Amino acid sequence: MASASNKISGVVTRFAPSPTGYLHIGGARTALFNWLFARHHGGQYLLRIEDTDRARSTKEAIDAIIDGLDWLGISGDGDPYFQSQFEKRHAEVAHQLIERGAAYRCYLTPEELTARREKAQAERRPFRIDSEWRDRTDWPDGEPYVVRIAAPRQGEAAIDDLVQGTVTVANAEIDDFVLLRSDGTPTYMLAVVVDDHDMGVTHIIRGDDHLNNAFRQLAIIRAMGWTEPTYAHIPLIHGQDGAKLSKRHGALGVEAYRDELGILPEALFNYLLRLGWGHGDDEIIGREQAIEWFDIDHVGKSPSRFDLKKLENLNGHYLREADNGRLATLVSPKFGLSYEELPLLIRAMPELKARAHNLNELAESAEFLFAQRPLALDDKAAALLSDEARTHLALAHAALAAVPKWEHDSLDAAVREVAESNALKLGKLAQPLRAALTGKTTSPGIFDVLVLLGKDESLARIADQMLEPNA
User: Fold this and answer.
1) Are residues 152 and 138 in the same domain?
2) How far apart are CA 421 and CA 392, in angstroms?
3) Which of 119, 171, 295, 460 has the least C-beta neighbours within 10 A?
């Protein structure tokens, strides 16, 4: 457990999604790790929307990302930072790099670049930009150009990554990548570096698929003489089969876990926390405990494996812990309940949530409470109601109608008396009762069902399905 003495002062982290789609599960975990690291150290956690790809960035995607972060409780501190609003600043830095001799105007045409790339492929060698414009300043007037970094060609660059350890790359491996396109707009590589510097980001926590980008970005940072951030490149999430996570593994948008799969935010928070990070054998970790315990030291170097079944089991735990009124409010839209009907759902929650793994199962288990008579029986329930079973229902109906106080123990005693008097096992009577009362073969305990439905409704549902003795 970290103590106050080893807290890092002045920590600023950021989550920087591109709004070209939903907030996927890997992005949500990256956001969570950044949020936790900042909270643990008493620092700031910022949200930057990297919307410079105007053709693919959409308002719907931006709204979905912000909504998903809000739902998980990991919104950024302050308003989101929109990258597209700072293109002039990005271009300004590119021209500063030219003035420093660390970047240059490149007038190579797309056709020339294509020809050189094809020649490298034909010769089976890696394609590296080797522009004759790198050391020239006799720039032609009015001709289109891009601005390229003049990447160092000698020596090597090293990053002391908090997860990956020390990683070293020869500078010769870094090509003269583009900073500004011919239309004057910045590339991702330039915009990210400028934004991180201007936002005061001290720690960059992101997926290890960005590790190679870090060396390109360092070339800009060092050329500008800026303070280098601390990097932590976390392994990606894989499916159970070890392959890169995809939709077939359950890689859905955060909103799908909420709206389609019925997952609670605290369950997804806890599950994402444990994907690649651990604290001993602890599995159930709440928000405040996570803030206290979280550190980068315990992020593993190997990819974690996403397991939807494990998430649902964890969600079941949080359902059982959740406030009954909150759960009723979450489930009630599925039934279009009036305000007057909500108390019944709240009363039923202790029994309903004991067996559910998600809000969909919770809603399904509550359907019997609001079903209209005569109940539609599912196939399994209908199969239980043989003529013999319907005759037994009539016996139970008579006994239940005579119960003076409609409460669990009295109902239990009455039904058991019927079973014993007719040499029936309790299940032989309870199962047809369940079918008649709920239309299904699974439900909360049968006596709890009777109490929840009340005397009049219970007796009416039984009467709908019973045969008179000797009929």
Assistant:
1) yes
2) 11
3) 119
Which residues are known to be catalytic? Answer: 247
Structural domain containing residue 180: 85-191
Tell me whether residue 217 is in a domain.
Answer: no
Residue 213 lies in a domain: no
User: For 194-217, how does the pLDDT look when each residue is reduced to its tens digit (9 = 90+)?
Assistant: 999 999 999 999 999 999 999 999
pTM: 0.91
Please answer whether residues 171 and 156 qualify as being in contact, where contact means their C-beta atoms are separated by less than 8 angstroms: yes
**Domain contains 411:** yes
**Tally of structural domains, the chain:** 4
What confidence score (pLDDT) does residue 1 get?
39
Which tens digit of pLDDT belongs to each residue from 366-377? 999 999 999 999
247 marked as binding residue? yes
Cα-to-chain-centroid distance, residue 41: 23
The candidate with the shortest Cα–Cα distance to 359, out of 258, 249, 262, is: 262
Tokens 């599925």 label which residue?
334
